[in-house]
Design a protein that fits this description.
Structural class: alpha/beta
Number of helices: 15
Low-confidence stretches: 8-28, 34-38
Largest sheet: 7 strands, mixed
Strand order of the largest sheet: 1-14-13-12-9-10-11
Number of strands: 14
Radius of gyration: 21 Å
Distance between the termini: 21 Å
Mean pLDDT: 85
């Protein structure tokens, strides 16, 4: 049986201050290397190669550690940011990047990343001045090394939790002026290594690096209280299609709207609770007067048939899986009364808009990744194998190690529905 807790209350919305749009942030995205190989299969292959490359980076990081600086320099005209993957991490990172720009409004903030975060989605944000996208090829990696050397920044902040390759990128790009996490796997070459806290919420862990850059890490508890997670600018310039607007307006007249995201990200399908249980919760919500909206992308299109068949005799539900853009989906989440979700990318839109959520965590650490909004965390604690996902140790299994998925199968539809009712 699962348990549910309410670890966070609504987070400091009154401290939101809008930033002015950045007119320099336009398409197309600058690409380091060739523009080929942007398909999901190529992205999977690229990140497998990146992990293999990481194993050979250890000696180079050790060499960099011998010449590392004792502290980053004070110049901040250009700030390089590295976060290579993935979509959920990028959404969790946005509040910290917003604070970074507020701290250094005259600085140029440049984000080095991969296609796995869907960088086109972020190009309208006023606090990111430029993106550079690494392409999934060996040629792209070689071009990246040349780019880092020819286009230095004043300081680099490496937000990746375990990639040694990102640490080396940060060292080269910032000429040794780099900040990043100290973990069992990385941190030897940073001019300012910051101890990674595996128990703290990841949004606050990301913020630690911004505070460290400002020399305010020792006062983090004070700044945590002022830290705003709201980033409504993510929808700046967005105009919903007539169909989406008509749908949202019609369903909000019919009572609470419950969005359900039954998916999970690339290589993380075993984090999914199960579509049959989501349908069971959907029926309970409809019976209580709610309208259900199913959300997801092409990875969740396999669920469309079973949803249609299971709810064919029911009213009060809509299936938007595979039929919306990412920006449409974000808009629906921003207008929903509550979202029920696995540990997956779309869950992390909640804190950007303050949308209440019921988050279902199996193999991951719920308190670390659950949105810091009005949220209820449902998970099955007390299992000797949980958590088996520990990102900072590069422990990212794609299947259940013992084959039972008890951390998810032990959570019932009644528990999730009861949690939803509390919100």
């Amino acid at each position: 049986m699962g348990t549910y807790t309410k670890p966070y209350s609504t987070h400091t919305s009154d401290r939101f201050e809008p930033l002015m749009p950045n007119p320099s942030n336009r398409f197309p995205l600058p690409v380091v290397g060739t523009k080929k190989s942007t398909k999901d299969s190529d992205q999977r292959a690229f990140h497998k190669r990146l992990k293999l490359l990481d194993k050979s980076m250890y000696i180079f990081v050790l060499l960099a550690a011998f010449v590392r600086k004792s502290a980053p320099g004070s110049k901040r005209d250009k700030i390089g940011v590295i976060k290579l993957a993935a979509m959920g991490d990028a959404l969790c990172l946005l509040p910290s990047l917003r604070e970074l720009k507020k701290a250094y409004p005259e600085s140029k903030v440049i984000w080095l990343t991969t296609r796995r975060i869907n960088p086109e989605f972020f190009t309208t944000l006023p606090f990111i001045d430029q993106f550079y996208v690494i392409t999934p090829s060996i040629r792209g990696v070689l071009a990246l090394l040349f780019f880092l050397w020819k286009n230095p920044v004043d300081v680099t902040v490496d937000f990746d939790q375990y990639y040694l390759s990102s640490e080396l990128m940060a060292f080269l790009w910032g000429r040794g002026n780099s900040i990043g996490y100290h973990t069992p796997l990385k941190g030897r070459s940073f001019a300012l290594p910051v101890e990674y806290d595996p128990q703290n919420n990841e949004r606050l862990v990301f913020y630690d690096l911004v505070l460290a850059l400002q020399g305010r890490l020792e006062q983090r508890s004070l700044y945590y209280k002022k830290f705003s997670l709201f980033v409504p600018e993510i929808l700046d310039g967005y105009v919903p299609s007539p169909d989406i607007e008509r749908l949202i307006n019609s369903i909000r007249k019919d009572g609470p709207t419950v969005a359900i995201y039954p998916g999970a990200g690339l290589g993380a399908s075993f984090r999914r609770w199960g579509i049959e249980k989501y349908i069971e919760v959907a029926k309970k919500c409809i019976e209580s007067g709610c309208t259900i909206v199913f959300l997801g992308g092409k990875d969740e299109e396999e669920y469309k048939k079973v949803i249609s068949q299971s709810l064919s005799s029911w009213n009060g539900w809509h299936d938007l899986i595979g039929s919306c853009s990412l920006r449409d989906t974000a808009y629906v989440i921003s207008r929903a009364s509550v979202i029920i979700s696995n540990d997956g990318g779309l869950l992390h839109f909640c804190h950007l808009f303050g949308t209440p959520c019921v988050s279902i965590f199996g193999p991951g650490i719920g308190i670390k990744w659950a949105p810091m909004t009005d949220s209820i965390l449902v998970e099955h604690n007390g299992l000797p194998c949980k958590p088996c996902i520990r990102q900072y140790l590069a422990e990212l299994p794609e299947t259940c190690k013992i084959g039972t998925r008890e951390c998810l199968t032990g959570i019932t539809a009644d528990e999730v529905f009861e949690a939803c009712q509390e919100l």
